[in-house]
Structure formats: C-alpha cells, structure tokens
Give the backbone structure.
Amino acid sequence: MALSEVEAEFRHGVSESGEVLVDDDGKLKRTGTVWTACAHIITASIGAGVLSLAWAMAQLGWLAGIFILLFCTFAAGYASTLLADCYRFPDPVSGKRNYSYMEAVKVYLGGTMNKICGWMLYINLATIGVGFTIITAKSLLAIQKSNCHRKYGEDSTCMFSSIPHMVGFGIVEIFLSQLQNFHKLTWLSKLAATMSCMQLLKSDFLLLRSYQYQVRHGGTTSLAGVEQSSSEKIWMTFIAAGDIAFACSYALVLFDIQDTLKSLPPENKVMKRAVVIGGLTMALLFTMCGSFGYAAFGNKTPENLLAGFGDEMPWAFWLLDLANFGIVVHIVVLCQPVSRIVELLATSRWPKSNFFTKENPVGLGNMKFNLNMFRLTWRTFYVVVVTVIAMAMPSFTNMLALLGAIGYWPLIVYVPIEMHIAQNKIQKLTLRWFGLQLLSFLSLLISLAAASGSIYGLHKGLSAYKLFQVKE
C-alpha cells in the first residue's frame, strides 16, 4: 500500500542518528519558544494604534482612560489565553492542528459562524488597508514638519498636504505586493520587528519632554479629561474607547505565532505563558505611552503622538524622525497579507485558468521573478482604491476607532469565548458561563460606542473637508 504524504515526509524527516526532524503533522520540526512567541506578540501589538493612546487618555481623563485601557488589554489577553487551547481540535494537547483563526472557528463553531467571521475579517482587513495608509502618511508628514520647524523655526507655518505621501506609499505597496512568497522574506520580517521596537524610543523621549513641557508651559491634565460640551464629550469618549480597543486587537495572528512553537512542552501551555508575559509588557508600554503623552501635552494632546512635538529640544528631532520611520516600515510589512485572501478564493474558484494560476517568469537585469497576471491586476487595483479612499478620509483617530469597533468585540473577544464554551461544554446559566458572557457584553458595549463615535466623527470631518486640498 502506498504511503501517505505525511508518512513519506515523516520518513524523510529522520536524521541518520534516528532523530525525528518533523512534527506530528509531517511538517519540519518547529523550534519556537515562549520568548520567540513573546517577541512576536509584542511586535504585533506595538503598531500604529499606540500613536493615539495619549490623545485617547486626554479625552477620557486619568480615571476613565486608565480603566478602559486596562480593561481592553485584560479582556483581549484573557480571550487570547482561551484561544491558545483552540489551536488543536478536539483535544488542546493531542488534537489536530488548526493553522489559522478561521480553521479553528469552522471546527469549533460550524460553517455558518465561519462564514460570518470570514466576512467580518474581510471587512476588517479592507478597512485596515485604508487606516494604515492614513497612518503612514501622518507619520511621513510628521517627519516633514519636524524638519521644516528645525530649518525655519518654531513660528514658521510648515503646512503640507499628506496626499503626496499617500501616493508614494501606494506606489511602494504596488511594487512590494508583486513579490512572490513575500511571507518568506525573513529579513523583512526582522526589519519590521526592529522598526516596531524603535517606537519604544519615544517613551524615553516623552519622559524628558513631559517634565520640560509641564515646567515651561504648565500643561494641564484632569481626572475627567478635556472640557467640552456634554454631547461632544460623549462622542469624543466613544472615539477614544475605539482607539484603545484597536491598539489591543492582536489576537488574529496568535495561531500563526502558536504554529511556530515546539510540540513539547504542549503548545497551548507555552502560548498561555507567552500571552501573559507579552500582554503584561504590552499593558505596561501602552500605559506608559498614554500616561506620559497626556502628562506632556495635557488637554492639548495631539491625535498623532509623534506629530505633536515642537522644537524645544532640537537635538531630539532625529529621534522623532527615526520613530516615525519605524512606524512606516512596520506598516509596509503588515499591509502585505491583506490582498492574499481574494487570490485564494479566486484560484479555488477557477483552478484551471492561466490568468489566475500561471506564473510568468520576468527578468530585469540580474533580477528574476515570477509575475501572475491576476496578482498584478488585483493588487494594483486594490492599492489604488485604498489610496483614493484614504485621501477622502483623512481623520486619524476616527479611522482607528472604526477599526477598533469592527474587530475588537466580534473577533478578539466574542469568538474566542464561544469557542472556549464549545470546547469545554460549559453549561448555560452556570456561574462561569455568566462571567464569560459579562466580559463579552462589556466588550460589545465598547465596540458599539466606538462604532457610533467613529461614524459621527467621520461624518463631521467629511462635511468640512475639501477633497484633495487639505494641508496640515
């Protein structure tokens, strides 16, 4: 009888000394540890969402700001520990591996929930493309403005349009999106990790900046945040909650991280430790960025933290430029997997069409690569559409709040809790069931508030926005 592919790979994966070089699924033996998993979690967490935490803290004030920040990080972290047990099915230690978030949803919650989550995920990924384009342009604009103030002085106008930066980012994305096996470019992933860690430099900078600003200008903070009219305060509070929720939305990549871990000790136990360590580190960093930023700028905290510094400390401009550049490189890499989903659907629907499946070899000097016509057409179209929409929706914090509203409750909290209930067969109306539902319900309230606040903010901003003509 012919050997199965897994059995064949298993036999080929045995060294001369008899050591097994493959895991139970026939793939090469995984080598990840709790510390590599922690690094991946922190890298995924420290992104564009961090930039608006100080602004969110200013809108909420010290009490509500710290409470919502800690609640969102706790809820996301706890749901992530539940998700770690769902990597295998049905047994969390010896069951069949689920290589992606959607695979786990399908086996634990069924096909209907898998389709619903799939559409939520696609919408989330599509809006992330728009949001990341805006965020990148804001970071590049901050570099341009800081250099202008350094050259012409603090009193100079230094008003620029973010549209050229969006166009430039789109061109870079079109080029990078055509690279085959982009996910295998480990040097680029390491570069993204390095750049995300560079953002931590701004925490040290903020410590010094906080002290100097408070002494020189007496920046005011308060327990209740910025003073506004009652209606405006409510909307800004909702938007701020969405910004915080977006910063905590990292659970979608946990299965990819867990799939790198060694089989022994069991992946779920190692992953839970990594989530706890990484989650605590993330909570500390988020609290530092939000608190130090609010302390530095008071109730006048800017939406983009790295765009708010004047030139009281000219020697530190290079540090700000470096942190902003780190944001850009980090986002360039994160944007790449988004368009892959449509290609997988298309190739499964038309597997015999050369337009969708054929790779055409192309050479440019010494550089050789394969070009797929559908990939070229679709990814170029996707980047162009995303860039145009980003130009029409320039609001930074409102876009982040919308992203947080779409992804936080349904994908980060609700689905992991439901999979945990299904896996452990938790009976309804029990104390544990009530506790899980309460956590889910509170997270739902945050997502609903963020959605309403972001829609209000986007509508208000677009009503006063002149398309393609704004300078800031």
Remarks:
- The radius of gyration is 23 Å.
- The first strand starts at residue 88 and ends at 89.
- The chain has a mean pLDDT of 77.
